[in-house]
UniProtKB/TrEMBL annotation:
A Pfam family annotated for this UniProt entry: ADK
Chief location category: cytoplasm
Subunit structure, interactors included: Monomer.
Protein name: Adenylate kinase
Underlying gene: adk
Record organism: Cellulomonas gilvus (strain ATCC 13127 / NRRL B-14078) (Cellvibrio gilvus)
Length: 192
């Protein structure tokens, strides 16, 4: 069975950690648009230079740039049996673009899995991560902006996937192992 999945949820809900674990269990690559942008920023590429203008202030990188990057990544052969997207789509236009990218390859999305978490809890987690990882976009002001962007642009995606019958929601509060088990169970149940 293929596993073409997107992982949704607010910043700080544990998407990155869970994406890596799920990808390993499902045998598909975890593709994080945030990680690809960060690698390009670090490597000083043209893409990185463009992305940094936006990501440093917690804004979304423009769709033209992000969509082209995702289209290229999903053309890589390691996605033949599926993928787990983390951090994409991030707005309703990207939902449509993902559907188009897949349709162009004769494919469809299998499932959108939303990790739910209380905004207060995720804000606290992000501030803690800021201390540990020193990410440029983990300062208090930028975190607040990223949570606003999430509420305004990203949260509405869930309704779009729900209307398509593709959404499952999983409670993201709890031990990491516990949440992984919940996610695997939700994915397994939905796939049946
Ligand atoms: P993340 O690691 O997923 O929190 O992403 C870090 C930053 O990368 C975001 O705050 C955005 O600036 C940018 N980014 C990541 N994914 C996307 C996306 N799908 N669309 C636009 N910008 C994105």
């Amino acid at each position: 069975m293929s596993a073409r999945l997107v992982l949704l949820g607010p910043p700080g809900a544990g998407k990155g950690t869970q994406a890596a674990r799920l990808a390993e269990r499902l045998g598909v690559p975890a593709i994080s648009t945030g990680d690809i942008f960060r690698a390009n920023i670090k490597g000083g590429t043209e893409l990185g230079r463009k992305a940094q203008e936006y990501s440093s202030r917690g804004a979304l990188v423009p769709d033209e740039i992000t969509n082209a990057m995702v289209r290229d990544r999903l053309a890589e052969p390691d996605t033949a049996e599926g993928f787990l997207l983390d951090g994409y789509p991030r707005n309703v236009a990207q939902v449509d673009e993902l559907a188009t990218i897949l349709a162009d390859a004769g494919l469809t999305l299998d499932l959108a899995v939303e990790i739910t978490a209380d905004p207060e809890v995720v804000a606290a987690r992000l501030l803690k991560r800021a201390e540990i990882e020193g990410r440029e976009d983990d300062t208090a002001d930028v975190i607040r902006h990223r949570l606003d962007v999430y509420a305004e642009q990203t949260a509405p995606i869930s309704d779009v996937y729900a209307a398509q019958g593709l959404l499952v929601r999983v409670d993201g509060i709890g031990e990491v192992d516990e949440v992984t088990a919940r996610l695997l169970s939700a994915i397994g149940t939905a796939a049946r």
